[in-house]
Amino acid sequence: MYTVELKYSEEPAAPPHFLKLSSNSFEEGDFDENFYQKSQMVFRKGNTPRGLFYIKSGRVKIYKHGSDGKEQILTIAAAGRFLGYTDLLAQRKYTSSAMSIEEAVIVFIPKEDFFKIFKSNEGSDYFTNLLCKDLIEAEKKMVSMAYTPVRGRLAEGLLELVDTYEDHEHKIELSREDLANFIGTAKETVIRLLSEFKSEKLVQIQGKYIQVINPQGLSKVNSLYS
């Protein structure tokens, strides 16, 4: 059993009328935690949500498939993230799928308990802020996909993933295929651009790991196209 604490490590950039949490944490009951192997489904697009998922450890990719069948990764979620809350709030079937990309421990919060949390002042404030932050990030990514060349998207994606892998000394452990699906390009293009970034001393490649060694340089690459 696991007690879920709702905490902010980063306050989302929200309009002034959105409220902040009135305290540092919110606790609501004890819930079951489940172990997931690498590449195990957490939930699938089209299924009906039965509750909320909270990542205690590990990482999960949230993705969809385009009309051509190609996978598009919307985000890589790490420990401390909630999954599936937007579909629960909208009372609709899942609009995307979630799969673990490494071993993970995920807490399941039944639907009834989630709405008890959400109806409390603190829970409502928390998830309202979270929804706002996620909408801003989704809009930012949509604009990037539409207007930023792939070199800029890779720089931006690596900077985003650095935070996701902060517990791995910022060493990004993601397959080249998943990285390509994350920034919306071909695997071969990612391999070529990573080689360029390595030559420019922006990253180090250590087998399956990618380590950002010059985040300022990557930010400069990204800013050239923004």
TrEMBL record:
Name of this protein: Crp/Fnr family transcriptional regulator
Matching PROSITE patterns: CNMP_BINDING_3, HTH_CRP_2
One GO CC term, this protein: cytosol
InterPro entries in the record: cNMP-bd_dom (IPR000595), cNMP-bd_dom_sf (IPR018490), Env_Response_Regulators (IPR050397), HTH_CRP (IPR012318), RmlC-like_jellyroll (IPR014710), WH-like_DNA-bd_sf (IPR036388), WH_DNA-bd_sf (IPR036390)
Domain Cyclic nucleotide-binding: 36-118
Keywords linked to the UniProt accession: DNA-binding, Transcription, Transcription regulation
Alphabetized SMART domains for the sequence: cNMP (SM00100), HTH_CRP (SM00419)
Location of the HTH crp-type domain: 148-216
Species this chain originates from: Roseivirga echinicomitans
GO function term, MF aspect, one: DNA binding
